[in-house]
Amino acid sequence: MLKIREHIYTITENLGSNDSAIVTEEGVVLIDTPHKPSDALDWYAFVRTLGEIKYLINTDHHPDHVTGNYFMPGVIVSHEGTRKNLIEKPLTPEHTRELMEFMDKPALRLIEHGFFYRPPTITYSDRMQLYLGKTEFRLWHRRAHTPNSTLIYLPQEKVLFSGDIVCTIGIPCLGGSCLREWLQVLDELEALDFTTIVPGHGEPVEKSYLPKFKQELQTIFEMVRDRMGKGLTLEEIYDDVHYQPDLIHCSTKEYIGYCDAEIEKFRKATLREIYQQIEKGLL
Q1: In this structure, which of 21, 42, 124, 279 has its CB flanked by the most CB atoms within 10 Å?
Q2: How much is the pLDDT for 234?
Q3: Euclidean distance between CA atoms 32 and 17, whole angstroms
């Protein structure tokens, strides 16, 4: 558990997204929720002690950011595309159960009856301002890690919650990402007045980290472009290109994450997305 500011708490060690709680005079705002239901219950047990949970903001629709929505109170807020994805294309019950069978067996009983991926009931299209107590939350839509990614900026605190637009523990899965626009967003953020980034995955960092993460993305893009220039097929690129994956999803001796097959699926989805966007002239 990290205390980013006197009234801002972030947990970084769970599988999936970083999850945050911002305490105001009129209640608590959550940002994203744990992937494992058992972690979600532990997180809820803590955040409920901070005050009444009024709002929950999701930075995108991926299950590692939204599974815990079901176990939290509060009105959910996010981009309209996040709602659309959670209603029209949620993980199937079978896939959800398969993930939990491997990484969170105690949670199986928690998803047997009535579980669903709780979607936002308040949405926005381009930008939105939310006020609770004296705290201002600025929500901005950017096409980057997903077509419906949300940035959350707290101007008084000079803190940016980036979702997976910035990660500090490896590259997240790029399947479905808007790659060229993602690089442009990272450049845009250089002009924003903030000091601290709470990333989608990994430890919080200073604003100066932005060029490093941009370079990590560009390095993978150029690795794929180089192999394509040499005539390698996508299947051959799968065998030839390796990089640092998003370690928060990987298992350790102390903590069960995704199975190796799921991690490999993410890696191939990343390389396929880069390959296809280069092929189409989008990157």
Answers
A1: 21
A2: 98
A3: 7
Would strands 2-5 and 8-11 be described as parallel, antiparallel, or unpaired?
A: antiparallel
The half-sphere exposure of 7 on its side-chain side, counting CA atoms within 13 A, is 15
Q: What is the pLDDT of residue 102?
A: 84
Segments of the chain scoring below 50 in pLDDT? none
Give the tens place of pLDDT for each residue, 18-46.
Answer: 999 999 999 999 999 999 999 999 999 99
Q: What pLDDT is stored for residue 241 in this prediction?
A: 95
Residue 207 and residue 189: Cα distance in Å, rounded?
A: 9
What's the sign of the alpha-carbon dihedral 245, 251, 256, 260? Answer: positive
Query: Measured between alpha carbons, how far is 172 from 266 in angstroms, rounded to an integer?
Result: 8
Q: Is 56 left (phi over 0), alpha (psi -120 to 50) or beta?
A: beta
Burial of 126 (0-12, 13-18, 19+ CB in 10 A): exposed
Q: Which domains does the chain have, with CATH numbers?
A: 2-207 (3.60.15.10), 217-279 (no CATH)
**Rounded CA gap, 181 and 281, in Å?**
13
Cα–Cα dist 96/106, whole Å: 14
Q: What is the pLDDT of residues 158-170, one digit of tens each?
A: 999 999 999 999 8
Contacts of 229 (CB under 8 A, 6+ apart): none
What are the structure tokens assigned to 216, written together?
């990590």
- Structure tokens, 202: 């990994």
Answer yes or no: are the C-beta atoms of 226 and 219 closer than 8 Å: no
What's this model's pTM, rounded to 2 decimal places? 0.95
Burial pattern 28-40, b for ≥16 Cβ within 10 A else e, equals bbbbbbbbbbbbb
d(CA 257, CA 103): 6
Answer yes or no: are the C-beta atoms of 205 and 168 closer than 8 Å: yes
